[in-house]
Amino acid sequence: MSLFFSLMNMGGIAGMIRFDGKAVSAQDLTHIKQRLRHRGEVSGQIIDQGALLAFGNTIESNNAAGIYAVVHTDFPNPSINQLFISSFLQNGLSSFNELNADFALTLWDTRQQALVCARDILGVMPFYYVHQPGRFFAFATEIKALIGLAGIVVTPNRHKFREYLTWSTTYTPYSSETFYENIYSLLPGHFLEVNVEKVHLAPYWNPNLGKFSQISRPEEYSTLFKEHFTAAIDARIKGKMSIGAHLSGGLDSSSVSCIAQSLLTQQKRPSLHTFNIDTGLASTDESTFVEAVVKQYHTQHHTVHPTADVLDAVLKINQLFDRPDHFIIPSSFHLSVSIKAKQLGCDCLLTGHDGDSVITTGLEYLDYLIDTSDWQELRLACLQYISYTERNLAFLGNNNGDLSTHSKYEKYALHIIGGNITKRFRSHPFSTFLKALSITKQALRISTSAIIAYCIQRVKAKIVHQNLLDNAFSVEFKQQIPARVLQSTEALSASISSEFNVSTNQILNTTNVICNEQLNHIGAYYGHQYTFPFFDKNVVELGLSTPAKISFDHGRGRGLIRNGLQTILPSQIVSRLTKANFVEYGTISAQQLYLAAHQQFKSPSHAIWEVIDRTLFLKIVNVVFEHRVPMQRKTRYNWLLSRIIYLALWLDSAKNAR
Fold first, then answer.
1. pLDDT score, position 7
2. What angle do CA 278, 281, 284 make, to 5 degrees?
3. Could you read off the pLDDT of 476-497 as tens digits, one per residue?
């Protein structure tokens, strides 16, 4: 029997190991089975100190070695011709790093009385656990299977509130803490060793970037991307009966849809179902690009609309999910697609999430040129970037469309080097700073007037930023719950960055992992497996290994996709440089949510006001509803308002969580 198989349902795992000599109660087992019954037919294995449960999958066992395993996975790496147990027996803990699969697993070694758990590198498969030293260790694919077990006290984790409701302009590492005290999420790319007294968490992900070291020509990287990406999609649709895909018309979703349909045609299988969302707003309209894909590949296309009742969508997700950070806008998008996909009988949904963090724009190439003071090449790169007339440069100012090419170049170049200039000003003597600035100014051919205008704009922006809210916590809450460092993926990302001189923060962060978990949960309830080809291990490692200059692609960005798939994608997609703007839709959704929900938490005694300052909350509401505030200024306020409401609704439901 090989590791190459595919599930026909959503799958999940759960179990309990007791360290106190007691048997796992029938009541606890019944509770877990009921909470996860939507994930498939259950198989059970009673072991000497507990029980293992697999939903929609079989339990692995090696009687000779005395090892049992439950694994939540949907597709394996066909190059590994052995079961998870066999791989573990052969390579130990390092076996997890060899797997190119989305997985969450638990192995119990009867002879060693040892328990090992692991989760895939980007957290596609969820894994939650609770450990009570001297008593038991319990785990499950969903938190709700743990809540209600005998001996588990449900207490909201107020430290998580602080992380959840703080706006950040940088990538936030994914943390192991959940919204329940003492219930944790296994960190992506990590394994867990469990014994009676404690759990030991350690990273296993060690990217193999050396396998690309012999590549020298740009076209080799693009060709290899095409090969790996095609293989990633092929592995994810293997064994599935009816395949669907999100198709927004962007570069990522279009790449997934075009390759998937090509494979289905070659394999003489039913055509791909593609789905796009029509919000009814011009700012989010990507229909021209969607139609280009559908016209060329003749997919079975479906246009769906966000569910009309935003509050109802959130309450429904609140019933399905375990944590309010899963209630992300546009939750109604995902519900609409899943409802339609269920009606059509899709058992697999492909998505382009989060392709642009894996196969990047290559803008880090500009940072490299600044660090090496290669001003001539930087000037050329900036000119290349702004040379595309369809590129949206609104961040340079409202009138940038009327500027000459040189003025536009000056603005963009200063935008790129501004941080570096500020850094020099703060860290060098003033005379040294002026000399360096003069050299940079001459080399880049930037006028004094442009620099002065840039400095004035920076000062204005800083003043505006100082008046923006990052949170709305009450003084009492801040005093009671001081900021603290949470156990997270930050150390793993830092280790990889240090060893390979690459950044994984844009890939391995809380936004990406939470989205993975959210879609996994939705799919489990609506009968399909969400899957993420861009998070394939080979694709991720290729993206990390690709030189920034190749990704930059003479200013176009996303060089691996544009060149690797230029014969597959419609020309409109290959040349597309714009992205839909969802700020307007986010504002409307936040307004609708507030109007629908505020009656439920307006009482001064509601638990949300133990966390949030009412005056600051009203300030946020006013900004979201004030039409005179520029739309782009509303992003963080839409985010803050929505999340505060999500938490308020969750606090209501958490009282009855058991």
1. 36
2. 70
3. 999 999 988 889 999 999 999 9
Q: What is the largest distance, in Å, between two alpha-carbon atoms of the chain?
A: 79
Contact between residue 114 and residue 198 where contact means Cβ atoms under 8 Å apart? no
The one-letter code for the residue type at 419 is G
Distances from the Cα of 295 to the Cα of 286, 298, 337, 569, 588, angstroms: 14, 6, 21, 12, 32
Map residue 108 onto helix, strand or coil: strand
Residue 15 is encoded by which pair of tokens?
A: 């179990």
Long-range contact set of residues 406-410: C-beta below 8 Å, sequence gap at least 24: 407/450, 409/379, 409/382, 409/383, 410/446, 410/447, 410/450
Q: What is the DSSP string of 418-472?
A: HHHHHHHHHHS-HHHHHHHHHHHHHHHT--HHHHHHHHHHHHHHHHHHHTS-S--
What distance in Å separates the CA atoms of residue 620 and residue 631, rounded to the nearest whole number?
14
Band of pLDDT at residue 465, cut at 50, 70 and 90: low
In this structure, are residues 73 and 125 in contact, taking their beta carbons and an 8 Å threshold? Answer: yes
pLDDT (0 to 100) of residue 433: 67
Beta bridge partners of 131: 137
For residue 43, give the 3-state DSSP assignment.
strand
303 in helix, strand or coil? Answer: strand
The mean pLDDT of 418-436, rounded to a whole number, is 70
Which DSSP string corresponds to 587-622?
HHHHHHHHHHHHHHH-STTSGGGGTB-HHHHHHHHH
- For the chain, the residue count is 658
